[in-house]
């Protein structure tokens, strides 16, 4: 018997998440993972590595709650927002029985997490403007325990209409948890649903330090929800989800100076985004540039496959989204430094008419 045959059937059948890192490439301009382009420096202040860390470090939870405008009892910290996704599936979905629902095109980890846990994935593709198809969601809600909505949405970049989110919350009350993935909310902070938590016991919000806080390598994310939901997540979380250095650095990132530095990075990113969007609009091979509220831009190209490959060969690594539902011809470009934005535009201009 081959060892592989011992694995669960669902795992044998699984296509792992194609993270930007796994896809490889020999680039020197990395614009495929929506990271901040420059490293921020930190020093470790805790010298207590002989001890196990706190499961939910009090100082860190208090800082994030203050930053997000919620109570400390409404926050869980985890190994990235990705672990938050998995906690919801493990706390709310019985394998082989319950389902999760999401609305493609969207972030890939909702399906990967559900599939590895043996939980059914149900989809309600978005309308042609990438807004929610509420009628389709309602039709498919039987047996669904968790609905994932990403806003602003990755990879399309736009916010989900708040009226539709309200309607979704009304539709799902007492039926399913609605998890709003706000990984990019720092780029449009006025749009957060954190202020809605008191109105909806089944609302939860995912956050991360990986994007605007420039800490993708740290692996630190947060879930905001009401205490009843938080207590369920804390039942299934690992006993020590964050190492001591992670908690230490995350707390520094959430100090007043850390938050101020984050806001400066956001302002700079938005300025570079404008440069990138304006440049893209002037290029012939670009059919459409979509409005972005984030640190990336989605655009549709005349021959995206050829352009993706030719930029790849020049060391500029973008994210090909053309295989996703309704995204044919689309590439996603992370907003890098000003110099990186200019390099992408130069490379695309060089290709014009070829
Ligand atoms: C990057 C990203 C995440 C993952 O965040 P981590 O904290 O790095 O795990 C979750 N959701 C969306 C939409 C993302 O783009």
TrEMBL record:
Reactions listed under catalytic activity: L-histidinol phosphate + 2-oxoglutarate = 3-(imidazol-4-yl)-2-oxopropyl phosphate + L-glutamate
InterPro entries named among the record's database cross-references: Aminotrans_II_pyridoxalP_BS (IPR001917), Aminotransferase_I/II_large (IPR004839), HisP_aminotrans (IPR005861), PyrdxlP-dep_Trfase (IPR015424), PyrdxlP-dep_Trfase_major (IPR015421), PyrdxlP-dep_Trfase_small (IPR015422)
Cofactor: pyridoxal 5'-phosphate
BP GO terms, sorted: L-histidine biosynthetic process
Pathway recorded for this protein: Amino-acid biosynthesis; L-histidine biosynthesis; L-histidine from 5-phospho-alpha-D-ribose 1-diphosphate: step 7/9
Enzyme class, spelled out: transferase
Modification sites for N6-(pyridoxal phosphate)lysine: 211
Domain Aminotransferase class I/classII large: 33-348
Entry keyword set: Amino-acid biosynthesis, Aminotransferase, Histidine biosynthesis, Pyridoxal phosphate, Transferase
Name recorded for this polypeptide: Histidinol-phosphate aminotransferase
EC number: 2.6.1.9
Pfam families: Aminotran_1_2 (PF00155)
Superkingdom as given in the UniProt entry: Bacteria
MF GO annotations: histidinol-phosphate transaminase activity; pyridoxal phosphate binding
Protein's organism: Tenebrionibacter intestinalis
Quaternary structure (record): Homodimer.
Family per similarity comment: Belongs to the class-II pyridoxal-phosphate-dependent aminotransferase family. Histidinol-phosphate aminotransferase subfamily.
């Amino acid at each position: 018997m081959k060892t592989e045959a011992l694995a669960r059937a669902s795992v044998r059948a699984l296509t792992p998440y194609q993270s930007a890192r796994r896809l490889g490439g020999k680039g020197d301009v990395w614009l495929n993972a929506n990271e901040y382009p420059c490293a921020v420096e930190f020093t470790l202040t805790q010298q207590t590595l002989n001890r196990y860390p706190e499961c939910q470090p009090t100082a860190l939870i208090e800082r994030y709650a203050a930053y997000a405008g919620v109570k400390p009892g409404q926050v869980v910290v985890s190994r990235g927002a990705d672990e938050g996704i998995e906690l919801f599936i493990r706390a709310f979905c019985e394998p082989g029985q319950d389902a999760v629902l999401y609305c493609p095109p969207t972030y890939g980890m909702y399906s990967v997490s559900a599939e590895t846990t043996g939980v059914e994935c149900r989809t309600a593709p978005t309308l042609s403007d990438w807004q929610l198809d509420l009628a389709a969601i309602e039709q498919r809600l039987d047996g669904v325990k968790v609905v994932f909505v990403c806003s602003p949405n990755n990879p399309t970049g736009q916010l989900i209409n708040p009226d539709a989110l309200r309607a979704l919350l009304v539709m799902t009350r007492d039926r399913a948890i609605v998890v709003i993935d706000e990984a990019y909310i720092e780029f449009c902070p006025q749009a957060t649903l954190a202020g809605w938590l008191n109105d909806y016991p089944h609302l939860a919000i995912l956050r991360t330090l990986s994007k605007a806080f420039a800490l993708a390598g740290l692996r630190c994310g947060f879930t905001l929800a009401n205490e009843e939901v938080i207590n369920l997540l804390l039942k299934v979380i690992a006993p020590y989800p964050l190492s001591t250095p992670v908690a230490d650095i995350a707390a520094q990132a959430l100090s007043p100076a850390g938050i101020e530095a984050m806001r400066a990075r956001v302002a700079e990113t938005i300025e570079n985004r404008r440069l990138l969007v304006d440049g893209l609009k002037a290029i012939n091979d670009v059919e459409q540039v979509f409005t972005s509220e984030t640190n990336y831009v989605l655009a549709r190209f005349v021959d995206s496959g050829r352009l993706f490959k030719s930029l790849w060969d020049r060391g500029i690594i973008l994210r090909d989204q053309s295989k996703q539902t309704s995204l044919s011809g689309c590439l996603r470009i992370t907003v890098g430094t000003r110099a990186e934005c200019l390099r992408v535009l130069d490379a695309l201009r060089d290709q014009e008419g070829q």
